[in-house]
Each structure stands twice: as C-alpha cells, then as structure tokens.
Amino acid sequence: MSAILRDLPHTNHNEAIAASVVSGVKQYGERGTTVRALDGVTVDFHSGGFTAIMGPSGSGKSTLMHCAAGLDRLTDGRAYIGGTELGALGDRELTLLRRTHVGFVFQAFNLVPTLSARENILLPLDLAGSAPDPVLLDELVTRLELRERLAHRPGELSGGQQQRVAVARALVSRPRIVFADEPTGNLDTRSGAEVLDFLRTAARELGQTIVMVTHDPIAAAYADRAVLLQDGRVVDDIDEPTAERVLDRMQRLGR
After folding, report:
1. What is the CATH number of the domain that holds 182?
2. 5 assigned to some structural domain
3. Mean pLDDT, all residues of the chain
4. Distances in whole angstroms, Cα of residue 183 to Cα of each of 35, 84, 192
5. Residue 227 falls within a domain, yes or no?
6. Is the dihedral of CA 234, 175, 47, 13 positive or negative?
7. Which domain holds residue 195?
8. How many independent structural domains does the chain possess?
9. Confidence class of residue 9 from pLDDT cuts 50, 70 and 90?
10. Residue 177 near residue 45, CB atoms below 8 Å
C-alpha cells in the first residue's frame, strides 16, 4: 500500500481481487419515485483480468462501474478497491485513493485541450506530486505509437490518437485497476480495434486489471470475461467471450 493510503481503513479482503462489489444496492430518487439501479450485485474483478460489463440500456452497467470505481457511493452493500472498503472513506480519502490506485478511460477522452499529449499523459502523476517511471512511460509511448505526437495538443490529434493518449494517462501511474467507460464509442472501427487490442495487451502482458463498460459484443470479445446485467442484477458471467455468444445472450435478455 502506498504511503498516501497508509492510514486508510483496511481489511483482510482478498488482495488477488483488484476491486469488488458485495451485495451492492444503488437507489436514486425519493420515496415513491425510487429507481433501484443496482439490486444486490456481487462481483469480483481479479487482478490482471480484463472484464467487460454489458447489458441492455438501463441495466445498471454504468452505475456498477461508478460505484466500483468510487465515483458514486452505494446505497447499501460494500465496494472495495484492493483491501480498502470505499464506504469507510471520507471524500478526501476517496479522492486520494482514486488518484493513486484507479485509472479512467472515458468515451469522450477528457483530455485537457491546452496541454500537450505528454502533459496530458503525466497529469495524474503531476497532481499526485509523483515522478513518472521512465521505463514504463517509454513502453507506453512506444506501444501506443505516440512518440511523434507527444508535443501535439488534443485538437491536433485524431480521435484514435486522443484515446491512446487517454489510455497512456490511465496506465502511467501503475494503478491497481483501470475503468474504461465505452472507450471506443467515439472511434471508427479501425481506431477502436487498436485501442481494444492494447487494453487486452495491457492485461495479458503488463498485468493491468481492466474493467470496461460496453454495449458492443465485438468489443466484449477482446476481454477475458463478460459480466451481463439486467434490471440491476448479474444474470450471466461468461469466460472467454466471443462476439457471437455475447450477442446471443444479449438478444435473449432483450426478449
């Protein structure tokens, strides 16, 4: 555990699990108009695994990601990053944990337009007051084919290049887990495939834990595992998913 989190509440929760939700419930709205987005979800995300979260619109997949990542709080149940229960943390502690142990990749890239690609990549480390690992930074820049683009600002990059910068930013601090929310939603087929291929490589060769929310069965096929939600509940958990298996299951859920 890093020094910045040394005093955070800690349990003996299995350290081979990068993140988990246990009996998670999330409700929105007031009495009489309550919507239960998560309804008793229990799911583990194993260290070094690449998991796709899928489900019909309104199934709770984005809510699950937000609660597992500490971007939102459960109404009931428990969420963990490593051995730390998120519900036991105050807002400042939760911010420190996300900054230190969690990476994010969003559909809209979320790059700072006035910063260069290199500055965007290093932004999480700058905010934490940490120096980059030069070996890791060089490997990310090389694998993501960004070396010739490091001085460019986001407006000078293609969508695929911007998302590769966002992926490098998520990985450069060696987070315990990376959450990717529809990371290929704004990309063409080729650029999307390049990003997905690297996320798979990051899990298999770099040991990075990745959880990806997607509606696309083809994207889910890049993952090691697909967790399917419906009406706020986990209804299937598919190892080594293929696009065909996931699409068939999604169609059956739709019916």
Report:
1. 3.40.50.300
2. no
3. 91
4. 27, 27, 8
5. yes
6. negative
7. 47-68+95-254
8. 1
9. very low
10. yes
